[in-house]
Amino acid sequence: MQRIIKDGAVVLDNWHLLDKDTTLDALPNSDNLIVPFKLWAEHAHALKARDGKLGIWLDSDEQAEDIADDLANFQLIALNFPSFADGRNYSNARLLRERFGYTGELRAIGDVLRDQLFFYLRCGFNSFAVRADRDAEDALGSLKDFSEVYQSAVDQPQPLFRRRG
Amino acid sequence: MYVYDEYDQRIIEDRVKQYRDQTRRYLAGELSEEEFRPLRLQNGLYVQRYAPMLRVCVPYGLMSSRQLRKMAHIARQYDKGYAHISTRQNVQFNWPALEEVPDILAELAEVQMHAIQTSGNCIRNVTTDQFAGVAPDEVIDPRPWCEIVRQWATFHPEFAYLPRKFKIAINGAQSDRAAIEVHDIGLEPVQNAAGELGFRVLVGGGLGRTPIVGAFINEYLPWQHLLTYLEAILRVYNRYGRRDNKYKARIKILVKALTPAVFAEKVNAEWAHLKDGPSTLTVDEVHRVADHFVDPAYQALQDQSALLAEQQAEHPGFARWMARNVNGHKKPGYAAVTLSLKATGYAPGDITDKQLDAVAELADRFSFGEVRSSHEQNLILADVEQTQLLALWNELRELGFATPNIGLLTDIICCPGGDFCSLANAKSIPVAEAIQRRFDDLDYLFDLGDIDLNISGCMNACGHHHVGHIGILGVDKKGEEFYQVSLGGSASRDASLGQILGPSFAQDDMPDVISKIINVFVEQRHADERFIDTFRRIGMAPFKERVYAANH
């Protein structure tokens, strides 16, 4: 099991992340699965009938709007960063939290490195699957890289100009 | 100017700590080259041809004398004794050691400066008119708005990894000295029928490989909604801008592909959700920031026309300098003075540590301790009493800043080029110098009048060649450096992109080529017509004919 950061602590992960090309007949019945968007789009009914918990993941070229009506079905949503330099899923994260009201676990997956964690946190992620070759404990500190911020975002909806003393 | 409070200060100090640790991890091999690259770029650190280059942010071109002295100190302590004013009003150091950059950042933080987001695929320094706050034709002071946008953009968590770099310019005057039409976003003030302030919003302008004059997508955005609207634009761009090809990743390509009208619809759809949210600006905040930009303690003075006329009659050199380097001021009895960093024999925009200290001293004595940098790579003392101009001119001559060439052919905008930059195809500084040497007759230069000559060493267009009346672009032909010439560009309100004259030239031919172009202008010119107006009237053909006919 991979060690991930969740709600500010390193924990063992009990979710199973499925590849993009996974087919329905290859699924185990009871595991907690994070399924690719395409599988959900095609087999939502069957996925809902399973016993294990259900999560979904979006790649950086997939849109939060496409799962906005289905959020109640997911115990976890993961957003993929194929490269840490691909910033599209920062926007998806904010949309899920701020526009579509998703309150469950929101996880960053893919090329997840400590130097982006603070931005992830601000955009609404609360769990981080730090890349396997890096230490999650080391990365924890970066969640506190900054002690003050200017903008409104998920972690602090009031911009600094509304909070200055 | 804006003065940090404890919040602003804490944010840049946190950054110094963060970057120090990132540098440590890079040097220890814990961060790969590829992982460190965007981190150092977002802190203005490039790895150049001979050494790293550090680009220090000068928000909208405004510096105090204290900050200028810090620049001098850094140039002495960490560099080879000089700095460079960039075409985005920033200050660049060409020789710092990568290991010492965290120390430089700590020194910068002491004077409320930083290098945040001066490079990388993020929102860059917000730029404006170098005469902001003092220009006679000003509609609003753009500086408070620049500062509000700066704070919003600083470490914006959603827009740290955009498809490509993103540049915002704000103009506050009737003339556009901020070149807003060639920016990713350009803003300028407009009032509605009730006299309330709003902004006209332009998107999708830019230079580089695909130069485009942007399109206005909103004719009146009420000021309260500035940040939510910017956020909507950036979100649409972050989500839908191309990421498969870095040469097609700027917002201008997206706007062009969708058409400005469709892009505007997408922005409006996004904005509908953000409008009136917490980022909606308040009167209190605008006042808080604007209070930092109130007028300095101006004296009640009269314009000194008679005295200045007398002094000019006595000193022809002073008269020439007054004609080119001194601008009008909104307050009677004051003037704005441009220090030319374009003396022949010096790289355009370069300035030594001693000169930086000297300018700081002049700023304290003549201009309320403030200095501005311009995108034309000069420095400005914006609040000089007219009775002091002659004394100031004498001091500037000793320091080498009094070349009376502002706006003339030799006031060349020029990137560092192949002498420093690893992206460059060709050198640009020697070409600038050769042209300056060819046109060394001041009377002749004065007769030629306003001509913008801009030189870039590569397609990235840091020297803004597309919007030079005469533009020069360094190109690589089978490993040799050649230069392509374009004519008819303009960065002003009537912005236009230059058209290519024809096949490119060898470096040694460039002074002759420019001479021929100027000769055609002189022969065809009506009275005191500007070069750009003559070009627009007669077109490319006469220039082309002359320049290439001689080659046969």
Automatic annotation (TrEMBL), chain A:
Organism superkingdom: Bacteria
InterPro entries xref list: UCP030820
Pfam families with a match to the protein in the record: DUF934 (PF06073)
Official protein name in the record: Uncharacterized conserved protein, DUF934 family
TrEMBL record, chain B:
Gene3D superfamilies listed in its UniProt record: 3.90.480.20, Sulfite Reductase Hemoprotein, domain 1
Pfam families, per the entry: NIR_SIR, NIR_SIR_ferr
UniProt keyword Zinc, yes or no: no
Molecular-function GO term, any one: 4 iron, 4 sulfur cluster binding
InterPro entries recorded: NIR_SIR_4Fe-4S, NiRdtase/SiRdtase_haem-b_fer, Nit/Sulf_reduc_fer-like_dom_sf, NO2/SO3_Rdtase_4Fe4S_dom, NO2/SO3_Rdtase_4Fe4S_sf
Alphabetical keyword list: 4Fe-4S, Heme, Iron, Iron-sulfur, Metal-binding, Oxidoreductase
Coiled coil regions, renumbered to chain: none
Superkingdom of origin organism: Bacteria
Nitrite/Sulfite reductase ferredoxin-like domain residues: 53-111, 332-398
Domain named Nitrite/sulphite reductase 4Fe-4S: residues: 119-273, 411-547
UniProt keyword annotation of 4Fe-4S present: yes
Protein's UniProt name: Sulfite reductase (NADPH) hemoprotein beta-component
Species of provenance: Atopomonas hussainii
Lineage start: Bacteria, Pseudomonadati, Pseudomonadota, Gammaproteobacteria, Pseudomonadales
